[in-house]
Design brief:
Pnp Oxidase, Chain A, alpha+beta, about 210 residues, 3-stranded antiparallel sheet, globular
C-alpha cells in the first residue's frame, strides 16, 4: 500500500495527477444540464457534480468550473433566463452526452451537433433531453463563489419533474437500475448503475452485530 503525499502528487505528470484526482471521489451521477438564451439559442452540457441540497423546498445544486478561464454558456443562460434542466444519462445516450463537453462555438447548439432531441414543457423555457428517463426543471435560486477553486456552486429550486411513474416505487424511491443509467468515473469513463443491496433506516437499536473487519 502506498502513501502519496501532497508534495509527491504535485510532482506527478500533470495529466496523470488530473486523472487520479478527478477519479478518486468515486463514480458520480451523470447529467446533462439544458439551458436557453434570451434569444432562443439552446445549450446542453454534461455535468457530474449535481447534488441534493434539501427536500423541502426541493433543491439541487451543481458546480461550475472557473468562469474566468473560458466562456460558460450554461451559466450565462441561467443568469439571463433564471431556469435550467437536469437530465439523467442512459448508456444509449452516454457517447452523445460525452461530446457535449467539446468547445463548440457560441452559435452552435449541442442538441444539434450531438444529435440529442430537445423537449419543452409548458412550465419552463429551458430545454429537456427527450431521451432522458429523469427530467428535472429548476429555477435558479442562488450561487456561491468558492474562492479556493474559483468555481461556482449554483443552486436551483425544483419546479417540475418529468418521469414515468413506473420508475417510482410506493415509498417514493427511484428504480435507477431499471432506467439503464450510467455514472462517470474521472472525466471520460462511464459505468452502469446496478442495485446491489437495500438496508433499513440506520438506527442504533437496529445495529447489526458485525463480526469481522
Amino acid at each position: 500500500m502506498s502513501i502519496l503525499t501532497k508534495t509527491e502528487l504535485e510532482n506527478w505528470d500533470q495529466k496523470k495527477r488530473l486523472n487520479l484526482i478527478n477519479s478518486i471521489g468515486g463514480i458520480k451521477p451523470a447529467n446533462l444540464i439544458g439551458t436557453i438564451s434570451k434569444s432562443g439559442k439552446t445549450n446542453l452540457a454534461i455535468f457530474f457534480s449535481v447534488l441534493h441540497v434539501q427536500s423541502h423546498p426541493a433543491q439541487l445544486a451543481f458546480l461550475l468550473r472557473p468562469t474566468d478561464e473560458q466562456r460558460r454558456d450554461s451559466w450565462e443562460n441561467i443568469q439571463e433566463t433564471g431556469v435550467f434542466t437536469v437530465n439523467a444519462i442512459t448508456s444509449n445516450l452516454s457517447e452523445r452526452a460525452h461530446y457535449t463537453s467539446a468547445k463548440f462555438p457560441e452559435e452552435v447548439s449541442e442538441f444539434d451537433s450531438c444529435h440529442i432531441k430537445p423537449l419543452f414543457s409548458q412550465n419552463l423555457i429551458a430545454p429537456y433531453v427527450a431521451e432522458s428517463p429523469i427530467k428535472i426543471g429548476c429555477r435558479f435560486e442562488e450561487h456561491h463563489y468558492l474562492k479556493s477553486s474559483r468555481t461556482t456552486l449554483v443552486v436551483g429550486t425544483i419546479e417540475e419533474i418529468i418521469i414515468d411513474e413506473y420508475f417510482i416505487d410506493p415509498r417514493g424511491y427511484l428504480a435507477f437500475d431499471k432506467m439503464n443509467l450510467v455514472g462517470i468515473g474521472g472525466l471520460n469513463s462511464y459505468y452502469k448503475v446496478e442495485k446491489t443491496a437495500e438496508f433499513p433506516y440506520a438506527r442504533l437499536e437496529n445495529l447489526p452485530i458485525f463480526t469481522d473487519y
